[in-house]
TrEMBL record:
Residues 91-351 form the PPM-type phosphatase domain. This is protein-serine/threonine phosphatase. Its EC number is 3.1.3.16. InterPro entries: PP2C, PP2C_BS, PPM-type-like_dom_sf, PPM-type_phosphatase-like_dom. PROSITE patterns: PPM_1 (PS01032), PPM_2 (PS51746). Keywords: Hydrolase, Magnesium, Manganese, Metal-binding, Protein phosphatase. Belongs to the PP2C family. SUPFAM superfamilies: PP2C-like. Its cofactor is Mn(2+); Mg(2+). It comes from Acer yangbiense. The keyword Ubl conjugation does not apply. GO terms for cellular component: cytoplasm; nucleus.
Length: 385
C-alpha cells in the first residue's frame, strides 16, 4: 500500500487533489446525507531539498485554466479563468544508470531557466525551461550529438519563437541532417529523442521514438507522448505506405523503433520519404495547479513499469522528501528491481516548491463510491506490488 494512504477510521486518505466531480458520484438514495460531507483539507509533509543534482530555478510561468480534454489531443485550450494565480516553479532532478547492458548509450539534458542558459540575447519574450532524454543505439555518437545541438537548432530556427511547434519539428529534421554531415561521427548510430519545452504558458512535448513523457495530475497519470514502435497500428501503416516492412516487431527486421535521428544506413537521400522518420510527434497543453510533475524516461523504465505505477511511486516519494532527484533515483531503482534489460534514464520535473498534497476526507454515514483519483491510486499501488 502506498505511503500516505490510510483507509482506517477516522479518515480515508487519498493521494490526490480536490475533485468535486468525484464527490458527486456517490450512490445513495438518501441525498440529504450528502450535505454532511465537509470540505477536504490539505496536509503537507516535511520538505527536504538538500540533495538536488540540478539547481532549483526560480523560473515562473503564468498559468492557464483546467484542461477540458485528454492529452492525446495535439493542442489543449484553456477552458476557464485565464487569470489564474498559479505560477509554476520548475525543480528538476535526474538519474541515469547503465543497468544490465555492457555500455551506456543514453544522454539527457536539464535546463531549468532558458534565459540564464542562453543569455540575454535569447530571442523570446518570456521565461522557459527545457529537458530532453535521448536513448542511443548502435553507439553513443547520435545521442551525444543530439543532446549537444537540439536546443540550438530550435532557438535558431527562423520560426522560433513565433511558431514553436514548427520550429521544433524543423529542428529535429535539421539535427538529423547535420548528424549525417558529421564526418567524424558514426552516422550509422541512432537515437530516439524526447524533449519538453516550457515556453511562456505552454508545455510542448516532442517525441521521436519510444521514450515517454507522463504528467502527474493529482495522482492520475496522463501520457504526453506515444511510443513509436514499428508494430503500433499508426506507425505500421506509415511504414508500409513508404515501402518498409515490419518483421517480428522490427522495422525492416533491424530496428525496434519506428522513428529516430541517425541510422543513416537505413535512410535514403536527405529529403526523401523514408520508413524510419526523424520527424517528431508533438503534444501541447497549458499547465494548471492540478498538474504536479512530469516524468520523462527511456524505454528501459516503461518496459517494466506502467505510466500509472510510475506516477504513484513518484508522488509517494515527493510526499516523503519533496526532492525530484531522489524521486528519479527511486524510479530507476524500482526498474532495476523489476529486471529491466536496458539502460535507464529518468527526469522528474516538479511544478511547485511544495510537495504534492494529501487529501483527508472525514467519514460520513453515507455509503460512498470511490473517487476517480482513488481508483487511479489503487491501480498504481496494485501495479507496483
Amino acid at each position: 500500500m502506498a505511503a500516505g494512504m490510510d483507509l482506517s477510521p477516522p479518515f480515508m486518505v487519498i493521494e490526490g487533489g480536490r475533485n468535486k466531480d468525484n464527490l458527486s458520484a456517490m450512490e445513495n438514495e438518501n441525498s440529504d446525507d450528502l450535505n454532511s460531507i465537509r470540505q477536504m483539507t490539505l496536509g503537507k509533509p516535511p520538505r527536504h531539498l538538500s540533495a538536488m543534482r540540478h539547481c532549483v530555478s526560480s523560473t515562473r510561468l503564468a498559468a492557464a485554466a483546467d484542461l477540458a480534454t485528454d492529452v492525446n489531443v495535439n493542442v489543449n485550450k484553456p477552458s476557464t479563468d485565464e487569470k489564474s494565480e498559479f505560477l509554476p516553479v520548475f525543480r528538476a532532478g535526474s538519474c541515469a544508470e547503465m543497468g544490465p547492458k555492457q555500455y551506456m548509450e543514453d544522454e539527457h539534458i536539464c535546463i531549468d531557466n532558458l534565459i540564464d542558459h542562453l543569455g540575454t540575447t535569447a530571442k523570446f519574450p518570456s521565461l522557459g525551461a527545457f529537458y530532453g532524454v535521448f536513448d542511443g543505439h548502435g553507439g553513443t555518437d547520435a545521442a551525444s550529438f543530439v543532446r549537444n545541438n537540439i536546443l540550438r537548432f530550435i532557438v535558431e530556427d527562423s520560426q522560433f519563437p513565433s511558431c514553436v511547434e514548427k520550429a521544433i519539428k524543423s529542428a529535429f529534421v535539421q539535427a538529423d541532417y547535420a548528424f549525417a554531415d558529421a564526418s567524424s561521427l558514426d552516422i550509422s548510430s541512432g537515437t530516439t529523442a524526447l524533449t519538453a519545452l516550457f515556453f511562456g504558458r505552454t508545455l510542448t512535448i516532442a517525441n521521436a521514438g519510444d521514450c515517454r513523457a507522463v504528467l502527474g495530475r493529482r495522482g492520475r497519470a496522463l501520457e504526453m507522448s506515444n511510443d513509436h514502435k514499428p508494430n503500433s497500428t499508426s506507425e505500421k501503416i506509415r511504414i508500409e505506405k513508404l515501402g518498409g516492412v515490419v518483421y517480428d516487431g522490427y522495422l525492416n527486421g533491424q530496428l525496434s523503433v519506428a522513428r529516430a535521428i541517425g541510422d543513416w544506413h537505413m535512410k535514403g537521400p536527405k529529403g526523401s520519404a523514408c520508413p524510419l522518420s526523424a520527424e517528431p510527434e508533438l503534444h501541447e497543453l497549458l499547465l494548471t495547479e492540478e498538474d504536479e510533475f512530469l516524468i520523462m524516461g527511456c524505454d528501459g523504465l516503461w518496459d517494466v513499469m506502467s505510466s500509472q505505477c510510475a506516477v504513484t511511486v513518484a508522488r509517494k516519494e515527493l510526499m516523503l522528501h519533496n526532492d525530484p532527484e531522489r524521486c528519479s533515483r527511486e524510479l530507476v531503482r524500482e526498474a532495476l528491481k523489476r529486471n529491466t534489460c536496458d539502460n535507464l534514464t529518468v527526469i522528474v520535473i516538479c511544478f511547485s516548491p511544495d510537495p504534492p498534497p494529501r487529501i483527508e476526507i472525514p467519514p460520513t454515514r453515507v455509503r460512498r463510491s470511490i473517487s476517480a483519483e482513488g481508483l487511479h491510486l489503487l491501480k498504481g499501488v496494485l501495479e507496483c506490488n
